[in-house]
Amino acid sequence: MSVPPTIFIVDDDPSVRRSLVRLVQSYGRQVREFPSAEAFLQQHDPGQPGCLVLDLSMPGLDGLSLQRELDAARISLPIIFITGHGTIPSSVQAMKAGAIDFLTKPVGQDALMRAIDAALEKDRLARQNYAEISGIEARLATLTPREREVLAYVVAGKVNKQIAASLGTVEKTIKVHRSRLMQKLGITSVAQLVKLAGRVGIVGPP
Amino acid sequence: MIVHCLDFVIFLKGANRRLCAVGGSTVKPAMRTAGAKRRASKPQARFRVSVCLLAALLAGACAGFARATETVLVLYGERSSLAAVAIFDETFRAALRANPSFNIDVASEFLDIGRDQGDEYFELAARFLREKYRNTRLLAVVAGGPMAMEFLLQRGAEAFPQATVIHAYVDREWLAGRPMPENVIGIPPHFDVAKTIDVALRIHPNARRLVVVAGGSVMDRHLQAFFRRDAPRFSGRATFEYWDDLPIAETLRKLAALPADSVVLTSSVLRDQTGKWYTGRESIQLMSAVSSAPIYGIISPQVGYGLVGGYMPRIEDTGRIVGGIVLRLASGEKLTASTLIETQPSHYIFDWRQLQRWRVPEHRLPEGSVVLFKEPSLWEKYRWQIVFGSTLALVILLLCVAEAVLIARFMAERRKRRHSEEELRESEQRMSLAARAAGLGSWLWDLRSNTIAVSERAASVLGVEEGEHIGFERFLSMVHPEDRRSARAAMERLRVDRVEFDHEMRLLRSDGAIRWIESRGRAEFGGDGQPVRVRGVAIDITSRKEAQAEARRHRDQAAHLSRVNVLGQLSGALAHELNQPLSAILSNAEAAQRYLAQGTANSDELREILSDIIADDQRAGAVIDRLRALLKRGESKHASVSINDLVRDIERLCHSDLVTRNVRLETQLTPDLHPISGDRVQLEQVLLNLVVNACDAMEDNDPSQRLITIRTEAADTDNVRILVSDRGPGLPPGDDERVFEPFVTSKAKGMGLGLSISRSIIAAHGGRLWAANNAAGGATFCFTLPVLALAEAA
Fold it and tell me: pLDDT for B539-580, tens place per residue?
């Protein structure tokens, strides 16, 4: 990965925030700090890989609300919650909404760094996956509508004759479409085609 | 005694050896001593026998004198947070203190069993205890509760070889189920739960459904079994239902939904199904707060925390009984399981407040019931006020009489030249008779000779002869030193201002006793318009003063309890308040450690980290100080207080709670308000109470509509005012006074005491507390306090 991940620390208590920043920096990590959930939302760049270390109870927008906001904006930044006194309902809610961990203050470095490592790994995989899918989708976008139709039938396991019958044309035309779409997608075998289509959810003709 | 004997032999032998060593001899000590008696065939044995005899004699002789300290170890099976532990400890120690001729030290250990530790834990505990008490003279080991007894049965021989074990609060049935060695003694309680069931059914004759609630710990299950055992005897009268080991939330939900013909029976819920631990008091408090049926039980410390009552052994009795056994052991009595065969008596115990709550008339209680927390009847409560009121009425009446007599006397004096003095004497006699009947002493201060003459009654209070003329300075010397200055000032003022005199002061009698008197007088003037004498009456008001002090103590206690209660509600937020600085300290310290380990530490960075750690430590300390001040029990102390500071303090204290509950607090503080005279802690309590109430009232509001406003302002020149407004639903119409009544509450968990205690605190400060609904919605609670200058003059 070219861009190093950043740990975003959001806590309204300046002394807690400063201490967390120091601790995470002592592990050689890149850190950005925010005094409130609102400040984070304003300045956050979704393209920046990393994870969020988030205080649960803050005046204004609290931790759980920020989690909801990010979710609504389809920003899948992994979140580690920290709290001075966690209640069971709030931790359940946070974990259900996909939080990586729910740590109670005082937070020890081992627990925190373990959670951060897990969060960064999750973020890395998510971004990698996203990049692959975007690539495939970009290539799929170059196909003509007819080629997409043919692709769906090939994926469903139909031979050229069957496809030609279904689409009301001759086998030869299908053959041309087929070789052109393989070429556009940069693949050489039907197996590769099935795998690629599976990644973006194409399993057969609609 | 045998143990003593052995100790002495060892001790003497040891001493002997040391003496010999000092003497520089190489001869074995025993041989050397024996050497003096060469005729003896087995000198060593002879020596030992004689020493043993000597030791026995010494030990016997010592019995009547000061003894070496002996230790009793109390081993509790549970946690130290259980109320039963504190009650036992207190009464047990008191029982030991009752006989000061023994020097007995009490050590306590808490095993905290019941969390299902295995054998390994027992083994480790036994090893630890053996090592810790290896060199302690253990008079006995007390097993506090069945769990401790279980431990001692399994591992006692290992941990405390040969020690006498006294069981405390280990019931008869529990003991009967296990083989008991002869060194285990005690007077066990007996849980006769049939009597509790029976009394509950007698008190609630319409009850048809009995619900037995118990937790899931070993103790919970053990006690609950008694109910299962005895229930069939009542099968004709009611049906039984068992709620064993449910999550507490479910228990509470079910309790709240019980129909009217139910009665709840409980032993204890120390652990619920989710594995969370409670003290017996905590669980009963939770249950009682929501239960729609009365709760009866068998564990005495739970009375006062929601239990209506029951038939139960008292832990106080256990403490006394075990103390008695220890003293008997200490005096050398030999006690075995077969010499102690009694059972600890049980009592019917009830909580008066719960009887009121469930409208139980007292005549339904069995004969000999102990009723705790009884609020005195009007006469009992206001006895002193009534006595004082009537006395005051009499005093006023007598003053009128005295005045009339004075006028009569004055007229008589004018008549004197014409009439006989008989009439005057008669009226004086009448007055003194009336004064004596009312317990009034009269006095006459002659300003020209500066002496005071007193009547018989006053003379007996002062400890002087009737009719004796006491010099003014001598009189002042009888006044309590702390009151002397004000008494002198009051009396001098009378001479100068010619006003009436009304003063309370303490007299310090020669026997050291302190009497409070109230004295009233009026100056009489000579022909030149100058005062010549002061005539007055005095009354002993010591008992009224004591009653007032007692009332104040009660108010302080109630205030303390209510403070603890409201802080309990904030405990989560306070934990947060402490965890913030602790968290920062930990992370800072860990970061510094890493920098040092990596060798990347730069001294500026480290200095910054250290100063942050110090600042956070101080911040945590300040939280604890604030809490400690509020939790401290004590007499109210008045000092100059700025109400704006008060508001700021509360703002800090509540900060976390407000954030968690999504409530905004705005303050509008008028600067430069006069300070007031008051007890800071109690006033903070009132404010805290109002803020917590306001938060509760807005629980159902949308977060944007959760706003508390605190305003301070001058009410008039002599008073300041604090207003706490919320945006809740407001008070139900007509209830703006009812909320101040005790035990009136709209909260599921509240006791309904906060506002009534707040009002009495404000009243004691000379102010007023009331509530009103806002025109724009919500309620405002408002209190006034007199500013300092005025309060001082009052």
Answer: 888 888 887 777 777 777 777 777 777 777 677 777 778 888
A56 or A203: whose pLDDT is higher?
A: A56
Phi first, then psi: give them for residue B420, nearest 5 degrees: -75, 165
Strand runs labelled E in B460-605: 469-471, 501-508, 514-525, 531-540
Which residue does chain A place closest to B582, by CA atoms?
A: A106
B659 and A20 within 8 Å at the Cβ level: the answer is no
Q: Are B650 and B691 in contact (CB under 8 A)?
A: yes
The confidence band for B56, taking pLDDT boundaries of 50, 70 and 90, is very low
- For chain A, the residue count is 206
B114-125: per-residue pLDDT in tens? Answer: 665 677 888 888
* CA A204/CA A37 separation, integer angstroms: 44
Query: Cis peptide leading into A106, omega within 30 of 0?
Result: yes
Q: How far apart are CA B410 and CA B426, in angstroms?
A: 14
**At what angle are helices B378-416 and B542-569 packed, to 10 degrees?**
150
Q: What are the tokens at B90?
A: 């207190």
End-to-end CA distance of chain A: 37
Question: Which residues in chain B are contacts of A109 at CB distance < 8 A?
Answer: 587, 590, 594
| Contact: A23, B590; criterion CB under 8 Å | yes
DSSP of B631-653: H-------EEE-HHHHHHHHHHH
Give Cα B521 to chain centroid, integer Å: 42
Strand partners, B289: none
In percent, the amount of chain B with pLDDT more than 90 equals 20
The confidence score (pLDDT) of residue B13 equals 38
pTM here is 0.44
Sign of the alpha-carbon dihedral angle for B377, B383, B385, B391: positive
List the structure tokens of B58: 């010494």
Which of B:634-673 have CB within 8 Å of A? 656, 659-660, 662, 664
Q: Number of C-alpha atoms within 13 angstroms, CB side, residue A192?
A: 9
DSSP bridge pairs for B348: B311
What pLDDT digit, counting tens, does each position of B71-128 carry?
999 999 887 777 888 889 989 988 888 887 888 889 988 888 766 567 788 888 888 8
Question: Distance (Å, rounded) from C-alpha B147 to C-alpha B270?
Answer: 13
Q: Do A105 and B609 touch (CB under 8 A)?
A: no
B49 pLDDT tier (thresholds 50, 70, 90): very low
Residue B710: its H or E element: strand B707-714
| Over residues B176-197, mean pLDDT | 89
Backbone angles phi, psi at B34, to 5 degrees: -65, -25
User: What is the distance between the alpha carbons of residues B249 and B540, in angstroms, rounded to a whole number?
Assistant: 58
Distance from C-alpha of A204 to C-alpha of A158, rounded to nearest angstrom: 10
Hey, which residues 5-64 in chain A have their CB within 8 Å of chain B?
13, 15-16, 18-20, 22-23, 25-27, 57-59, 62
Mean per-residue pLDDT over chain B, rounded: 79
Q: What percent of chain A has pLDDT over 90?
A: 37
